[in-house]
Amino acid sequence: MNKAQLIDRLSPQLGSKKAATDAVEAVVDTITRAVASGEKVAITGFGAFEKVARPARLGRNPRTGAAVKIKKTTVPKFKPGQGFKDVVSGAKKLPKVAVSVAKSTTGTTTKTAAKKTTAKKTTATKTAAKKTTATRAPAKKAAAKKAPAKKAPAKKTTAKKTTARKR
């Protein structure tokens, strides 16, 4: 799953794609800044992000076998928490309460809005339908753009070979 897919999964729970994008961006930015400054970011049940210093060492060039000096550096490190490990290994299953709660909350909001005015609910539904169509269209365009780019270099190579054979 990449960042865009994560945003798509969160958008129904948070109400809109914009809210989901803002939430993911805020979390990633906050963790990145904290770890870069040397802080340890621990999320209970998920894991901990921290900055680790690697010392200078002597390595080997795999092609020649010659010794190479590798400089010291700092890198980010993630250590998964026990709850995360248990879910991934299959020892523990995730509860489906989080998704149900979000859906029931949304349902309650819709019922309240329906009591106030029916027209607002209809407009909101049409807007949601437009947003869904708009998000799917760019994905198809992006796929179409990639295909011709791959064909172009092949044509150039063929033309060069033909010219070389005639001479």
Shape descriptor reads: elongated
Uncertain regions spanning at least 5 consecutive residues: 100-148
Sketch the major β-sheet.
Answer: 3 strands, antiparallel
Radius of gyration: 26 Å
Q: How many H/I helical runs?
A: 5
- Spatial arrangement of strands, main beta sheet: 1-2-5
Percent of residues in beta strands? 15-25%
Walkthrough of the structure:
The protein has 167 residues and is α+β, with helices and mostly antiparallel strands. It is 65% helix and 16% strand. The protein contains five helices and five strands. The chain has helices spanning 3-14, 17-36, 82-89, 97-116, 118-166; strands at 41-43, 47-54, 57-60, 67-70, 73-80. Strands 1-2-5 form a three-stranded antiparallel sheet. Strands 3-4 form a two-stranded antiparallel ribbon. β1 and β2 (47-54) form a beta hairpin. α1 crosses α2 and α4 packs across α5. The longest helix has 49 residues, at 118-166. The radius of gyration is 26 Å and the shape is elongated. The relative contact order is 0.06. The model is unreliable at 100-148 (pLDDT under 50).
